[in-house]
Amino acid sequence: MRKFYLLMLGFLISQQFYSQTPDENIEMKGLIAKEMNAFTKKMITYNINPNTLNYNLQYQRMDVTLDPAVYHISGSVTSHFKPNQNMASIYFDLSDLLVVSQVQYHGTDLTFQQLPTKEIKIDFPASIAANTLDSLTIHYSGAPLAGNAFSTSLQSGVPILCTLSEPYGAQEWFPTKQSMNDKMERFDFKITTPSQYNVAANGKLMSETLLPGSQKLTFWRTAYPTAAYLIAVAITNFIKLNDTMGSPPFPFVNYIYPSTNADPVSMANIEWTKDVMNTFETYFGPYPFRNEKYGHMQFKFGGGMEHQTMTSVGSWSKGLIAHELAHQWFGDKVTCGTWNDIWLNEGFATFGAILANEKLLMTHTEFKDFMLSEINNITSASDGSTYVPDAELSNVSRIFNNRLTYAKGAYILRMIKWILGDTVFYQALKDYHARPNLAYNYTRTSDFNVSLLQSTGKDFTGFFNDWLYGEGYPSYVTKWKQTGNQILFKVSQTQSHPSVSFFEMLLPIKVNGTGGETAYFVLNHTSDNQYFLENVSFPVASVEFNYEYQILEKNSTVLQDNTLSVSSVDKEDFALYPNPAQNELYLKGMNKSAAYSIHAADGKLVRRGVYQPGRTIGISELVPGTYIFTVNNQKIKFIKY
Q1: Full domain range(s) for residue 518
Q2: How many domains would you assign to the chain?
Q3: Is the pLDDT of residue 13 over 60?
Q4: How many other CB atoms sit within 10 Å of the CB of residue 614?
Q5: 313 with 324: CB under 8 angstroms?
């Protein structure tokens, strides 16, 4: 699984740079042309390789010799596996450019075949029973396919070896299982190198041992489930920086070039990682790999790669640091289960970088300018779905498409946040990656949808059908007229692509008064040419639509229209939504202030209040159960969970 992050002109470098670059995007990831050509035929096959479905890969130990000055790998990988059915042979993904010399099994040699499909098939002397933990060792050597999965180069004249395996490169340098249905529970690196080099890798550094002949054995171990494409090493004359971060603290470990250590800007940005970690722990929950570490290992490529616990970086911009750190929750702890759902990795990480912009890097004005640039990027074409259809999986650049996978994927999350409110949304994100069936596992969009329903009581199926599986975006015309203390809106919508007939959405409206007053309304837009009547207590000077870029739209307009008639308003049904609800309720069909009460199912009064149009009713302090909401002699039953 190979992914190469291309730093495009206009990559995020500073908050000043953000505001000066209207077409800037959070991060530009793609694949260089030769890699796309090399792996095009593998994309559909390796979502799930059917030959590896008959076992679970429990553990791997890599014992290899590597020298950054020599393009070569030799050694062995021991794999512990558990068949889920009786099994007479086993397959591993492995490039046929690497020569397997021996397969050892309980002290004997097994017969094997290296296949042109980049697999090794190994036959057992007798069938292994289902659910029997077993192991074997593959000895191999050779020069891996040239590219990013395994690469040597120079930094300041010193040899460096590094790996970057997304999406399908792990098999280029070690035998493993790349199907996106089975993470390894544990992985050990035992890497022998010339003693002048330091080895960085996933997990926790267990030991470094000097060997005869000016050699060194470095032992890293990760005990968290890990996808094959997130296994990585980097080797050169690194300077090792050992620090702590978080509360309570855990290791913050960086392996950097000597030239980076001498650069105060890079060092300041590395230190800034602590700030963004604190922010992400606040909004996303505790860092998922606290028992090991977080850190960076520098590598030869421009950009970065979210290798679990040890991000590989080629530069030190804050946007890059934030994006890759967000991946530790979204992409590493929970990992997209197919490349169709790559937005679950990249859209979420892009949203994380946006969060860092909002909370740490930008003023309010700068952030609004940045979000407008994101909208302009997403709407620069009228088609394309964030979900990657099977027919497009052969195009690697389509999978890692900045406009659709990264930017629109992040905006989908921004709109969910707008619909739910910040408190409910961020709790739902924490719930998503913490659920026992999802944590440290592969996930699909359907899993995220179910998790949202469990957390919020709201079904986002229709939303995902429009925004994720559908293509394009809406444009709105909002007409308004003030009559006394009321303001009438009429909203129409057109769609940029025929795959979506109508985008149902809560519309953000800001009303500005002639004396500087403001009022905010949320219009539940469910049909074209829909009317809304709201109360406003001051003379209206202007109306703003999508005033904080809460939703994705393009070329929308707002017009004052004195021909609108209040008699045209369709009376909406009186209702509370969402129902069931966790923290907030919206009241539909009530356009004026009114006293309300909430009673428990046994008739006990638990709340009195005054409803204000356009504002939510907070219920977070209520004990889960059934309640009766009463306003203007109308009663509605709702469930608090």
Answers
A1: 474-568
A2: 3
A3: no
A4: 18
A5: yes
* DSSP secondary structure letters along 465-483: IIIIIS-S-EEEEEEEEEE
Distance CA 475, CA 461 (A): 22
- Dist CA 324 CA 353 (whole Å): 9
The kind and range of the H/E element at 276 are helix 264-284
Q: Looking at beta carbons, which pairs linking 443-450 to residues 24 or more positions away fall under 8 Å?
A: 443/334, 443/335, 443/336, 443/337, 443/341, 443/344, 444/336, 444/337, 444/338, 444/341, 444/344, 445/341, 445/343, 445/344, 445/387, 447/337, 448/344
* Whole-Å CA distances, 513 to 517, 522, 534, 551, 613: 5, 17, 15, 24, 17
Claim to verify: residue 372 and residue 407 sit in the same structural domain: yes
pLDDT value of residue 616: 85
- Tokens at residue 360, please? 């740490």
Whether the model pTM is above 0.90: no
pLDDT tens per residue, range 281-333: 999 999 999 999 999 999 998 889 999 999 999 999 999 999 999 999 999 99
Distances (CA, A) of 587 to 117, 523, 575, 614, 623: 59, 11, 6, 8, 20
b/e burial code for range 271-308 (CB count within 10 A of at least 16 → b)? ebbebbbebbbebbbebbbeebbbbbbbbbbebbbbbb
DSSP 176: B
CATH number of domain containing 137: 2.60.40.1730
Strands in 70-83's sheet, in edge-to-edge order, are 108-109, 99-105, 134-142, 70-83, 55-67, 186-194, 215-222, 204-211
> How many Å apart are CA 592 and CA 535, to the nearest integer?
6
Three-state DSSP class for residue 596: strand
Are 292 and 224 a contacting pair, CB within 8 Å? yes
Q: 361 and 453 share a domain?
A: yes
* Residue 587 sits in the same domain as residue 564: no
Bond preceding residue 225 cis, omega within 30 of 0: no
Amino acid identity at 204: K
| Residue at token pair 């069938």 | 127
Helix (H, G, I), strand (E, B) or coil at 635: strand
* Strand, helix or coil for residue 169: coil
347-387 tens-digit pLDDT? 999 999 999 999 999 999 999 999 999 999 999 999 999 99
Looking at residue 18, what is its pLDDT?
32
Q: Which two tokens stand for residue 189?
A: 């690196």
Same domain, yes or no, for 496 and 449? no
Strand 334-336 relative to strand 441-443, pairing: parallel
Domain boundary among 568, 598, 618: 568
| Cβ neighbours of residue 446 closer than 8 Å, sequence gap 6 or more | none
Distance between CA atoms of residues 62 and 192, nearest Å: 11
Kindly state whether residues 174 and 186 are assigned to the same domain.
yes
